[in-house]
Amino acid sequence: MESSLPPTPFDAVVDPEPIEAAVRSGRPVPKADEFAAQIKETADKLLRDGAARGDVKLVATAVRELRYCFKVFAAYRGTRKAVVFGSARTKADHPAYAAAEVFGRRIVEEGWMAITGAGSGIMEAGHKGAGRDRSFGLNILLPFEQSANPVVHGDPKLVTLRYFFTRKLMFIKEADAVVLFPGGFGTHDEAYEALTLVQTGKSHIFPIVMVDEPGGSYWKMWERFVEDALVARGYISPHDLRLFRVTDSVEEAIKEVTGFYRVYHSMRYVRGSLVLRLRSKLSDRLLERIGWGFGDILAGGKFEQVGALPEEARHRPPAAAHRRDQRRGVTADRFAPSRRLTPAGGSEATRQTHQDPRKHLRGAPLASRDRQGAGDVSRSLAVAARRAVLY
């Protein structure tokens, strides 16, 4: 039986092709039991292929870990979650530890929950601020350094995983925001993972915030490296700098995270269209400005504001389920949201002013509107959709 729980943001963008293929052919959309049958069939094929014991064990362990994670998170699907990353070696008397603890407390005050890697240092600080009841832990088995912190130890929302790749998948799958405090290789690994997935369109979009201790320079130095070594050499587009925010203020980080969803709610695919769901209707004037300011990310067509599509009826955003008449949207052919039509940093792109909307991306003007740059943006999310729908 298909779940009646609202989907996570990640569900909307994971492999839409089977659904699209079914729609094009007129066949029913595959149900969960059909995908389960595919898992069983794949397992049988592994044996028929003579796969090595270690390979079969890897697949079996990964499936078990993911199944259990899905079970743990299922009851909290309607609650937004911020994933907090940072060094396990940060001491409790360090300013970054204090900042992470304050962030955990503040994000819970906004109605969110916190997810960390369940270790010590920054992870413990985030959990300490959020409290046990509002914390998830995704622990990893390591020969050193990593054991569950006292805040989540023994809690049913703590999961210990063998593989980094299943752990990383769950971080991104459940993330409504990624917040990074100073850390080592693991922190940077998660930072680049989140940036790459959002940049290439392999994940839903969410705010990515790097938080320094007050007056700190850790992430500012990283940002300079990105600008001088990556942007300057053409390895990434100048527009990609709008995928993240660097700050040394916890309150600014909170505003960035929560403000991102002031107008924007979530995204999913319906009948070959990318659906961007909004919390409130856009004015006709703002819609016109969006069409003018962001037309270069469309392969054709125009933005249109519509009501909820019939296919979306059972996937109403939980916060708006009782106000269906207020759910509206915009449609357009091939939309690439990495340019932040959905409100970057809160609502700058949707603020109804008389100013140029192109200047409301992270509060900084775009370098140019050259066609090459627009092409980079259009490719950066690789949206396999004929249209985009905002409602």
Question: SSE layout and pairings?
Answer:
Elements lengths: L16 H9 L6 H17 L4 H22 L6 E5 L9 H15 L3 E4 L5 H9 L4 E6 L17 E4 L2 H11 L2 E4 L4 H16 L7 E4 L6 H14 L13 E3 L2 H10 L4 E7 L2 E6 L5 H10 L4 E9 L22 E7 L35 H10 L6 E4 L1
Parallel strand pairs: 1-2, 1-5, 2-3, 3-4, 5-6, 6-7, 9-12
Antiparallel strand pairs: 8-9, 10-11, 11-12
Helix pairs in contact: 4-5, 4-9
Report mean pLDDT, rounded to a whole number: 78
Give unreliable regions as ranges: 1-6, 317-388
The number of domains = 3
Number-wise, the strands total 12
Explain how this protein is built.
With 391 residues, the chain is of the alpha/beta class. It has three domains: 32-74; 81-259, Rossmann fold (3-Layer(aba) Sandwich), CATH 3.40.50; 264-390, no CATH class. It is 37% helix and 16% strand. The chain contains eleven helices and twelve strands. A seven-stranded parallel β-sheet has the order 4-3-2-1-5-6-7, with helices on both faces. A five-stranded mixed β-sheet has the order 8-9-12-11-10, covered by helices on one side. Helix 4 (95-109) links the parallel strand 1 and strand 2. The longest helix has 22 residues, at 53-74. It is globular, with a radius of gyration of 21 Å. The protein starts with 16 loop residues before the first helix and ends with a strand. The model is unreliable at 1-6 and 317-388 (pLDDT under 50).
